């Protein structure tokens, strides 16, 4: 049997690479190692700037070169790092040796022993993950979500006044407008986004068991906790002052839970749109050259929304696992988080892929106004709610003697298709005030939408 050369196992790195590769700039092994190198370099700069251990501040030109090397971390450094790790069998130690080597090349060998000083691997890793997750969320995942929200907003504006039959329990119910129903999703997503944006990205830098013991043994006169706080916040993170060897990952659990909630809302959107397509409320715009079915030429399948459903589910399976696993560590440290966190990019990648499909799918549908209007006109019985409510109000006001309005409407409408003429005849014979009767006679299913149009225009 022939062997394939370097074929990806994950569809994110194969079939869908063009859509998800941007996540890999941050949440791949290479992205993680770039961040680790940056942390090691910045720790050196932080220490030497304060002349700790007798070191002088790094010459500005040399520091700029060192930082540029870290920022440009690419294929050459990846290959070099792999060679070192093949010997060390320890990924963070390999990063330390790579930085030391670069210091020698920049004639900074005299500070090489400060590389990784007072650090445990988790000091480097937790900060590396914090900045890569933060940057992936802010530069990749969040813009994809905003693009979906913006497309929904456009459709809310377009369809704000388009009356549409509602369906509660799958049955015809009080009409709404298509714009208002889409506005509900915009409102839900915006609320989750606000909460997600408030989650801090935490970092610790306190040594092997979170006690600064090595730091104090090396220099008992330095306020190491304050120095660590300045270092962590200087990276744009929030300082976690009280940890074991590991940063407790609670912020990650909070973030992934929130991302999963966004996924679930969008999954709900995808299934709703799919269902509207299935009853003809949305028409799909055929893509030139695309095939809907391998055997039925007439079909235009809603594959964008189906693909989105599947990828949201895969994403949430991983996000839920991450949130559950990362908050637990045996005593001061175990390595379950190390293996688990390597799947953060996969979890967010499937979410990005799903949002890409939702966005594309929304751009390939248009409301079938004639179908929507016909469905409203075929379901005059939905006005039974309005009629029995008005009768109750009239009875209360002393303008009617009808004893059981609900029962009267139930007898007329339940399980039956009622025409507009039949309903008007029923209303015309009601013992209610003339003004109330006139309001009911003027009603049609298309006009019975309350303030739905106004609600759709009240988005933040």
How many distinct domains?
Answer: 3
- Please tell me the CATH architecture of the largest domain by its name: Up-down Bundle
The neighbouring-strand order within the major sheet is: 1-2
How helical, in percent, are the residues? 55-70%
> According to CATH, what is the topology of the largest domain?
Fumarase C, Chain A, domain 2
The end-to-end span amounts to 60 Å
Q: CATH homologous superfamily of the largest domain, by name? A: Fumarase/aspartase (Central domain)
Provide the structure class: mainly alpha
β-strand percent reads 5-15%
List low-confidence stretches: none
Task: Report the biggest beta sheet as strand number plus sense, adding barrel if it closes.
Answer: 2 strands, antiparallel
How would you portray this structure in words?
The strands form 3 sheets. The chain has a two-stranded antiparallel ribbon with strand order 1-2. 60% of the residues lie in helices and 5% in strands. It folds into 3 domains: 18-117, Fumarase/aspartase (N-terminal domain) (Fumarase C, Chain B, domain 1), CATH 1.10.275; 122-287 and 299-368, Fumarase/aspartase (Central domain) (Fumarase C, Chain A, domain 2), CATH 1.20.200.10; 379-456, Ribonucleotide Reductase Protein R1, domain 1 (Orthogonal Bundle), CATH 1.10.40.30. The protein has helices at 17-24, 29-49, 60-71, 75-88, 91-105, 121-158, 178-197, 213-218, 224-234, 250-278, 303-325, 336-341, 344-362, 369-377, 384-396, 405-413, 420-428, 434-442, 452-456, and strands at 163-168, 171-177, 202-203, 238-239, 282-284, 365-367. It has 460 residues and is mainly α.
């Amino acid at each position: 049997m022939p062997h394939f050369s370097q074929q990806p196992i994950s569809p994110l790195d194969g079939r869908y690479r063009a859509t998800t590769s941007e996540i890999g700039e941050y949440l791949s092994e290479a992205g993680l190692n770039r961040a680790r190198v940056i942390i090691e370099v910045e720790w050196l700069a932080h220490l030497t700037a304060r002349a700790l251990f007798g070191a002088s501040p790094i010459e500005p030109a040399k520091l700029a070169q060192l930082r540029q090397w870290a920022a440009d971390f690419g294929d050459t450094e990846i290959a070099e790092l792999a060679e070192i790790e093949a010997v060390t069998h320890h990924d963070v130690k390999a990063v330390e040796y790579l930085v030391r080597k670069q210091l020698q090349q920049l004639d900074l060998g005299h500070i090489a022993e400060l590389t990784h000083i007072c650090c445990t691997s988790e000091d480097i890793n937790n900060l590396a993950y914090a900045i890569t997750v933060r940057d992936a969320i802010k530069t990749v995942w969040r813009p994809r979500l905003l693009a979906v929200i913006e497309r929904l907003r456009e459709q809310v504006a377009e369809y704000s006044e388009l009356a549409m039959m509602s369906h509660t329990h799958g049955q015809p119910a009080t009409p709404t407008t298509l714009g208002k129903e889409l506005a509900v999703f915009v409102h839900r997503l915006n609320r989750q986004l606000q909460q997600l944006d408030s989650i801090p990205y935490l970092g610790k830098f306190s040594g092997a068991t979170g006690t600064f013991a090595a730091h104090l043994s090396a220099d008992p006169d330095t306020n190491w906790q304050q120095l660590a706080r300045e270092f962590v916040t200087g990276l744009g993170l929030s300082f976690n002052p009280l940890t074991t060897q590991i940063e407790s990952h609670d912020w990650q659990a909070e973030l992934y839970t929130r991302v999963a909630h966004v996924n679930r809302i969008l999954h709900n959107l995808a299934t709703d749109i799919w269902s509207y397509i299935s009853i003809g409320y949305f028409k799909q715009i055929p893509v030139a050259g695309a095939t809907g079915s391998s055997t039925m030429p007439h079909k235009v399948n809603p594959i964008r929304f189906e693909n989105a459903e599947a990828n949201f589910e895969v994403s949430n399976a991983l996000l839920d696992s991450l949130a559950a696993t990362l908050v637990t560590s045996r005593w001061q440290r175990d390595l379950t988080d190390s293996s688990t966190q390597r799947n953060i990019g996969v979890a967010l990648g499937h979410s990005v892929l799903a949002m890409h499909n939702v966005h594309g799918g929304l751009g390939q549908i248009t409301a079938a106004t004639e179908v929507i209007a016909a469905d409203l006109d075929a379901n005059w019985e939905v006005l039974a709610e309005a009629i029995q409510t008005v009768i109750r109000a009239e009875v209360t006001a002393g303008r009617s003697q009808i004893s059981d309005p609900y029962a009267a409407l139930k007898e007329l409408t339940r399980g039956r298709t009622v025409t507009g003429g039949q309903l008007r005849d029923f209303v015309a014979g009601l013992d209610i005030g003339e003004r109330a009767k006139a309001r009911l006679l003027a009603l049609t299913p298309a006009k019975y939408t309350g303030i739905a149009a106004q609600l759709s225009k009240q988005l933040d």
